[in-house]
Design a protein that fits this description.
- By secondary structure, the chain is mainly β.
- It has one domain: Immunoglobulin-like (Sandwich).
- It is about 5% helix and about 45% strand.
- It contains one helix and eight strands, in the order βββββαβββ.
- It has one helix at about 70-75, and strands at about 5-10, 15, 20-30, 30-40, 60-65, 85-95, 100-105, 110-115.
- β7 and β8 form a beta hairpin.
């Protein structure tokens, strides 16, 4: 059964990005619909489990928006205004609604990387 998950690691401090705000959006043509907003738990994951589960998974285009600057400011990091990275949007596609899609983010105030995890 398909599902979508994410996990964010703070590479500046070497820990999960607990408290980071994340927004999941579905993109249909020029329409962008917010599916859910959440705050990551102590492990850097959604406290409610998958972002999409088998009953809500659908093929299509999606975006995860990670509030990177707000997270780092909340941890006491002094950032310039405007910050180098503010919100990090990751656009991705779900081709198989029965598949498992894991979208991790490794982030610092100055860099990020992502990949399709397992």
């Amino acid at each position: 059964m398909g599902h979508l998950s994410t996990h964010v690691l703070d590479t500046m401090n070497g820990c999960p990005a607990a408290g980071m705000a994340v927004t999941l959006q579905r993109i249909t043509g020029s329409q962008v619909e917010t599916v859910k907003t959440l705050t990551l738990n102590a492990d850097g994951r959604n406290p409610d489990g998958p972002l999409l589960d088998a009953s809500t998974m659908a093929a299509g285009r999606y975006r995860l928006v990670f509030a990177v600057a707000a997270y780092f400011r909340a941890t006491g990091v002094t950032l310039p205004e405007p910050p180098f990275l503010d919100e990090v949007p990751l656009d991705f596609g779900i081709a198989d609604a029965a598949g498992h899609y894991h979208v991790p983010l490794l982030a610092s105030p100055w860099a990020y990387s992502t990949y399709r995890g397992s």
